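Journal club prep, shared notes

We agreed each person brings one worked example of a sequence with its structure written out as tokens. Mine is Pentapeptide repeat-containing protein. I'm keeping it raw so we can talk through how to read the token line rather than staring at a rendered picture. Sequence first:
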Amino acid sequence: MDDLFSPRGLSGRTLARSDLASLAGGAPQVVTDCDLEEADLSGLDLTGWRFERCNLRKADCSGTKLEGSVWQSCRAPFVSFVGANLSEAVFSGGDYNNSSWRRATLTSAKFAGTKLTGADFAEARAMHIQFEEVLLVSAKLPGFSFRKETLRKVDLSGADLRKGDFRMTVFEDCSLREAMVAGSRFEGSDLRGADLSGLRLVDANLFRGATISREQAGQLLGELGLSVR
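Then the structure, token by token:
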């Protein structure tokens, strides 16, 4: 019988695929202060695992099963989560700049205090995803759905949000500055807490049905070449 009081986890080590493969599919592990730079973790079953303060720069987690996993203050620029299952995963703190989440499953995932500048979320499945205090500057989120979500302190400056679904979304202290929003839907959204400066409006009806402030209305009309006096 397993000793219920024995610690399960790896700490302060440089790890490779072989170190994790033997534990994959078993009891969830806690990985703390470990170096997994450029490690190949693709396709492993790491459901429910917890990673704390680890280095996963350029690690390959494509196709990895990571449902319910927890990521605390990890450094993972250029990490690949292509096709990974990250349903109900939690990302708290950490650097995931220029990471790839293409075709990943992110249902009910949560991101708080994380850096995702330049991240690629194209074709990701992400119903009920939560973002709070997140940098998504220049991120790729075409066709992404934020419907009925509340975004708090999310910076989407310069992001690709084309054909996004923002219906009934609430923005609180956010930025859409110079974002690409052609074809997106904003019906019923509350944009009063978003910086809308520099948006390139392709369709004058883009924000029909959304709530904006008087100042924002002036900004949008200015983008159409109209002067508000």
